[in-house]
Amino acid sequence: MGVDDQPSPARKREREEEPADRDAAEKRPRADESEGASLLGLANYTDDEEEGGAANKGHANGAPREEEVEDGGNEEEGEEEDEEEEEDERRAPERRPRQIELRRDCPYLDTVNRQVLDFDFEKFCSISLSNLNVYACLVCGKYYQGRGLKSHAYTHSLEAGHHVFINLQTEKVYCLPDGYEINDPSLEDIRHVLNPRFAREQVLNLDKNKQWSRALDGSNYLPGMVGLNNIKETDFVNVTIQSLMRITPLRNFFLIPENYQHSKSPLVHRFGELTRKVWHARNFKGQVSPHEFLQAVMKASEKRFQIGVQSDPVEFMSWLLNTLHAKLRSSKKKNRSIIYDCFQGELEVVKAMHRKHIVGDEQNGDAVSQVETSDGMVTETSRVPFLMLGLDLPPPPLFKDAMEKNIIPQVPLFNILKKFDGEAVTEVVRPSIARMRYRVIRLPKYMILHMRRFTKNNFFVEKNPTLVNFPVKNLELKDYIPLPKPKGNEKLRSKYDLIANIVHDGKPGEGCYRVFVQRKSEEAWYEMQDLHVTETLPQMVALSEAYMQIYEQHE
Fold this sequence. Notes:
By secondary structure, the protein is of the alpha+beta class. Strands 15, 19, 23, 24, 25, 26, 27 and 28 form an eight-stranded mixed beta sheet that branches.
């Protein structure tokens, strides 16, 4: 080898100082150009679903952007440039806008099995138990996370040969492991089951619809009259939900998600989802599982109500209405919500007690007036809003009759409504001994009555078996309790129709709950107990041991 052929120190230095990543900087645009030229029908958008925002994490941790690496690379040493190049190439796929091919001719669409699809359960990956970026396999119905090369969905597609997946958040359908997006109108029914949608016109005409729907198994069901799955002793939740589904303004409010998108409460959104699924006419099956709603209830109530523990539907109804109201009210109208618009009425409460029984700040609050008599009795008058009215049943007989059988007493509803006529005295011992008188001064659109059947003492819970005789239609309140005169030209609306009746069967602490509800389009009555939905006669409704009732005001 000659002297000229040997590399001089100056030439070696020039070669080292030559920018190593000039080629790398030019390579990437070329690659992008060739990629764009070969894939014409592409949807070009940034897809950060797959890795759960790993690209953003890279920048947050101080990772250099492409421009910084390319511009500043010339000033670094050769080894550092190589390391930065390798790091840049590793991170580039995460930051670069992903180009997803859109195709309609997927050969695997015939493998989709609608019979196994169930979107009622929590959207968690069946392997990692993560709720981020979850896909449902449309062949076996299982949930998997991600669709990248190392994701569980990608692995499942190779192991099981299942290729069609739907993103449970964006509702986009992909073919794995090929990675292209499927754009086919035959998948619209699956999207509708995953996230039912209602137009405002549909919502207004729901009560006129008499058409039955057909499930995939060939069974018929009525939208709005579907059974609810009893996950484990959750019948108290099921009867409450079925009753609230009959409240037309409440149902219409929750069928349109835009009405409550300002609320960040998971309970509100899960209740809205459940409402849409119950009234959806294109379900794959004629039943709904309230699993996600129950999870939200357990979290919001701090496990006061939970799966596997029987609870009281009256307590649950009271808690649910108050919690939904608190989560729905906006800052502009502080104490207004759809809950109060439907259920809130007002009572005038007159409380008479001896001065020595007054506890702490009991005189404060919304008291209107306070009068003290010469014998030391203090009378306090206040206005109290209410969402439901509790009715006291007469005590059952202690002894058996001549036929050695207990007589089951009966009482008309009007007798126990006299508690609210402003004259009947109710004695209470908590929080202090007092005599109370109640008078209704504002009637709600929907009136909830509950009969106090269960009494708890130091030893056990007793159930009062007294039957309450009540009218199914045209309950006229003004004949039995005094009502305030309407203002101006308003008409006194004191006539109510029954729309839901919750019944308890069995012993206290055990037993089960069922509900009778009315379908407005046909004015027919249905008995619902978990998954069982059967049509019944209105006369049968009045023969049951009513526990909680919802009445609708006449227009």
